[in-house]
């Protein structure tokens, strides 16, 4: 049951009579139509009238309109204007560039810019590795998208993707002091994206691919990893996989099972599902059975692309065929990154006892978590209004902090697994229970712990190569 939240938050400026009941009438009216009042500020006061800013959370745009109309229909009340607070925080964008050096006089200018800067340029020309010491490259990451798979909105293009990429850059800064910059490309051609990313790479110490549709995202990441000497990380794949592996480790601690004994069903074999399966395989699970829109993935199924062929060859030990519902029978764990409302409590009842259900399709999960709870011991979703939110924010800031601090040239599974363990470890035995298998995204311990673990793994990988 959705509740009014800050995603649909409005401030309504109203003019009302200066009577003793005015405030009560206005706040009661908001509550009567289901709005949640968050602030009441008198901005003007006159002998006969007051002007008030009423802030409230709503369920949807239509609900926000209901609240406004209800206020406007009160006797003597007039709505002057309505501000959507979500749009307000986007005005002019969410990030900016600011200089780190003082530019107060000619002296400063001569060192930060010409003529002094020329000697720094020459030093880098002579020794390109110095770019990490003497430029923004040291701490800068490109958040690169083609706008083809943005949130649950689909292919909305590069300009419409920008608010998400700005938000991502803001999160990088807030949680890990990484300077990330949106790079939204006006092309969805795989070869062009690769060519442009390579041409842009000198400025960046890492590339975070974002919201690029499968299967194109697999090829782009693979080729860029082969051709660039900076880490390339598709967050929709690996950020999700890291947090899922962390959450599963803790969920299995709660129910007292070993992953080596578990049958894990993964619904959805796109960007997120494929990466989850590949990382989970490193944990040596009893078995993984993958299913997508065409049912269980097995080698004899027709029309398998390269990705599904690999998945079929590395999962499903008994090469089971059939539907998702059939896959669930006898499973210990369900992980969904696919589509809403695919099954109900009756299918969870067919899983093993102490079942674990991660229903992560956004915004509506594969099963209503309240239904899942009827038979499952641990339930997680991607939503912030339920316990156990699987959220990539737990992973990507610390992952890149660690990669940058290690001056890593590549990223591999050892670093992803180190990040997963670090997230899981933040939830110690004193905190762990069925409603708390992952830390809060606002837990300040998470990003430093992830960064330290990734840095260590990256340095170990570097040492092993040299
Ligand atoms: N942290 C999180 O909670 C998190 C992270 C990543 C993705 N997701 C969610 O997971 C879903 C998939 O994301 P993605 O980026 O991998 O998408 P994708 O388009 O790359 O893959 C979608 C997959 O789901 C399958 N699918 C679609 N409809 C289905 C159905 N009716 N039955 C079974 N399978 C079906 C497709 O065949 C495909 O394998 C989205 O809802 C996304 O929001 C959540």
Automatic annotation (TrEMBL):
Keyword Metal-binding attached: yes
Names of required cofactors: Mg(2+); Mn(2+)
UniProt KW Metal-binding keyword: yes
Keywords in alphabetical order: Metal-binding, Oxidoreductase
CDD domains cross-referenced by the UniProt entry: NAD_bind_2_malic_enz
Residues reported to bind (S)-malate: 362, 391
Residue stretches making up the Malic enzyme N-terminal domain: 92-225
Record domain Malic enzyme NAD-binding: where: 237-459
UniProt-annotated catalytic positions: 113 (proton donor), 168 (proton acceptor)
GO MF annotation, one: malic enzyme activity
Binding site for a divalent metal cation: 210-211, 236
EC number, UniProt record: 1.1.1.38
Highest rank taxon of the organism: Bacteria
Matching SUPFAM superfamilies: Aminoacid dehydrogenase-like, N-terminal domain, NAD(P)-binding Rossmann-fold domains
Family: Belongs to the malic enzymes family.
PANTHER family: NADP-DEPENDENT MALIC ENZYME
Identification of the protein by name: NAD-dependent malic enzyme
Species of provenance: Amycolatopsis japonica
Lineage: Bacteria, Bacillati, Actinomycetota, Actinomycetes, Pseudonocardiales
